[in-house]
Amino acid sequence: MADIPAWWRGLVRRIRGWWTVTRAPGRFLCDSCRFDYGDACRRPERPNATRCDDYRPR
Known about the structure:
Layout: H1 6-23
C-alpha cells in the first residue's frame, strides 16, 4: 500500500475537525467522548478540550 499523501491527511484532518465542531458545538468534547473515563485519555487538554484528534462519540 502506498503512503498517503500529505494533502490527503490534511484534508481528512480538516473534515474531522469540522465534523467534531458540528457534533458538539459550544461545549467540551470530553463530555461526550468514548475515552472519558479513568486513564483512557492522557491528553493535556482533558477535560476541557475543544479540539481533539482522538475524539470518538459515545
